[in-house]
Specification:
The complex is a heterodimer of chains A (321) and B (253). Chain A contains ten helices and 14 strands. Chain A is α/β, with parallel strands linked by helices and 321 residues long. Chain A folds into two domains: 221 residues, P-loop containing nucleotide triphosphate hydrolases (Rossmann fold), CATH 3.40.50; 67 residues, 2-Layer Sandwich (Alpha-Beta Plaits), CATH 3.30.70. In chain A, the strands form three sheets. Chain A has a six-stranded mixed beta sheet, with helices on both faces. In chain A, strands 2-1-4-5 form a four-stranded antiparallel beta sheet. In chain A, strands 12-13-11-14 form a four-stranded antiparallel beta sheet. Chain A is elongated. The model of chain A has no long low-confidence stretch (mean pLDDT 84). Chain B has one domain. Helices cover 75% and strands 0% of the residues of chain B. The chains are: A alpha/beta (321), B mainly alpha (253). At the A-B interface, helix 2 and helix 3 of A face helix 1 and helix 4 of B.
């Protein structure tokens, strides 16, 4: 299938010499929800800003719906809706005026019925005549989404869409994003909340220090890089792991009341049967047990820390040379 | 051409004018009326004619220019500065609008407001002094040309300014003194010869002179020179804006 966004060899070095992005290759498939994860300053917003035309790239090229973002910027931008990280609105404008402005700006003729539909979907219809300054933070964020959707884009960029919103609103937004995907809109979101990516994304990209560390189908990523743990609740806490079990991948929790066995999801022989047999031989009893897969957050932290360690190693190597 | 885009910016800016009617229209009309009362009706009645025109009528073109220059710069600079300040500029930059269309929307709205204001002041002046317009076509031409040119200049200031002080500094410290010293209240022939020559370096002299000629057929400098200087400033502003969008100066990283 033809990707809706194609990024090749993209790089951005600012005037001061800071390299925000280097050699990014990425393809976004039509109709997917793609989550871009990365620590602060990793380059997520720069990447989005380049695709949307707010920042000029230093090298590489980007196409949106087969239109080059620089040569065919009109066609490329018509396809894009952007919800930036910061809530930036004209405080004294009305909600209706703001969405009407956005639609016109993107070259679309007036369509009050479409704007009404969006405002109703986002529970803003009752506030359509209110000045933006009177809206709550959550409503302002929903208004930003309404503005981005006003010109019926086929690609929606959400830069940290749920930063600072309450749990209920976050759930509503997730629901709305899924609805958009179902209606054929491609959604690219950046987020600090890994649970958000875990909950919604079809694919995940991890960006760190301006480099795309990996791009993977979320389920595959969690299977490929995830680990599983078997936790046993002990009736009598242990001071330390018995010598007879020392060769197993075991650890105790803080007060010794839980014995945790780590195993590989992909492995055919998880070793659980052998572990339980040896536990019995060591006369260690347990009153409860449960298993847990590593979350996307743990995978993400491992990836970013791994890359950081690698970077520091390289730096110290260069210093020694 | 994204006509809907131009229309959206234009209507948005005009809507701001109607929201702030007292500040945008009523206040400049009132302050210019005070000039007419003080210099036209009160002091003007005790002064002689200047170049065959009563003093009250003589100052009308200069006062309209004073308001026109100030308002054109202020409307256009604020129009583009505020989205930069509030962050809403992201939407304009990410929209399928060209540099020309952005400028047409913002500058078109700023110039429209200034022209409306100029005409309102002209109508208001009728309550205080009698005047005539010998060359209405040229009067409108100068009004439109000056409003557009100084709205472009205001747009440049709005892009350049990164705080509210900078937004005010050029209109208050440079444009207003140049207008006062550009013959708004006197004919430059009334100055000593040396200062007459110095005054010719003030671009506002050419605007006021041309505009006054359209009213009364008297001018400090040749009409062709007035039109030429106004067009030259227009071209300079357009070139600067072209450079701004080409390089992304203070609007794009």
């Amino acid at each position: 299938m033809e990707p809706i966004i194609s990024i090749k060899g993209l790089g951005k070095t600012y005037a001061g010499g800071f390299t925000a992005l280097q050699n990014i290759d990425l393809e976004i498939q039509r109709g997917e929800i793609f989550a871009l994860l990365g620590p602060n300053g990793a380059g997520k917003t720069t990447l989005i800003s380049i695709v949307c035309g707010i920042v000029n790239p230093s090298q590489g090229n980007v196409t949106v719906s087969d239109f080059d973002i620089q040569r065919d910027y009109r066609s490329a931008r018509r396809a894009i809706g952007l919800v930036p990280q910061e809530i930036s609105t004209d405080s004294f404008e009305s909600v209706w005026g703001a969405v009407k402005f956005s639609r016109g700006l993107f070259g679309k003729p007036p369509n009050p019925a479409h704007l009404e539909k969006i405002l109703r979907q986002l529970s803003l219809w009752e506030k359509k005549d209110n000045k933006i300054i009177t809206l709550s933070g959550g409503m302002k964020r929903r208004l930003m989404i309404a503005k981005a959707l006003s010109h019926e884009p086929s690609v929606l960029f959400l830069d940290e869409p749920t930063a600072g919103v309450d749990v209920e609103l976050r759930q509503d937004m997730w629901e709305m994003v899924r609805g958009l995907r179902d209606s054929g809109v491609t959604v690219i979101l950046t987020t600090h909340y890994i649970e958000e990516a875990e909950e919604m994304a079809d694919r995940v990209g991890v960006i760190n220090r301006g480099e795309l560390v990996l791009v993977e189908d979320k389920k595959t990523l969690m299977q490929k890089m995830g680990e599983k743990e078997l936790s046993l609740q002990l009736p009598e806490p242990l001071q330390k792991i018995p010598d007879s079990l020392a060769d197993l991948p075991l650890r105790l929790n803080g007060d010794g009341s839980q014995l945790i066995y780590r195993f590989d999801i992909k492995s055919e022989n998880t070793g659980i049967a052998e572990f339980l047999r040896r536990l019995n031989s060591a006369n260690i009893e347990f009153r409860d047990l449960h298993t847990r897969e590593s979350s996307l957050e743990e995978i993400f932290v491992n990836l970013v820390h791994g890359a950081r360690r690698e970077h520091e190693k390289q730096l110290s190597g260069e210093t020694q040379e | 051409m994204n006509l809907h885009g131009i229309g959206a910016i234009y209507k948005f800016e005009m809507a701001r004018t109607w929201r702030t009617l007292m500040q945008s229209i009523a206040s400049p009309v009132l302050s210019t009326s005070l000039y007419f009362i003080v210099f036209g009706a009160a002091i003007g009645s005790r002064m002689g004619e200047v170049e065959g025109v009563s003093y009250g009528a003589f100052i009308i073109p200069g006062l309209i220019m004073l308001a026109l220059l100030g308002e054109s710069i202020s409307n256009a600079s604020f129009g583009i500065f505020f989205p930069k300040f509030s962050g809403t500029i992201y939407e304009v930059l990410s929209a399928p609008v060209s540099a020309f269309e952005i400028v047409a929307g913002y500058v078109g709205a700023a110039a429209t407001k200034s022209i409306l204001l100029g005409l309102l002041i002209l109508i208001t002046a009728r309550f205080f002094v009698d005047y005539e317009i010998l060359h209405p076509f040229w009067m409108i031409t100068f009004l439109v040309l000056t409003a557009v040119t100084f709205s472009l200049f205001g747009f440049i200031i709005g892009i350049w300014a990164d705080d509210f002080q900078k937004l005010q500094v050029i209109p208050l410290m440079i444009v207003t003194p140049l207008t006062f010293l550009g013959g708004a209240f006197y004919s430059i022939s009334m100055l000593p010869e040396f200062w007459q020559k110095v005054t010719l370096f003030n671009p506002v002299v050419y605007l006021i002179s041309g505009f006054r000629w359209a009213f009364y057929g008297v001018s400090d400098v040749n009409l062709g020179l007035s039109v030429g200087m106004t067009l030259l400033f227009l071209v300079l502003c357009l070139t600067t804006i072209w450079w701004i969008f080409r390089t992304g100066y203070r609007i794009k990283t």
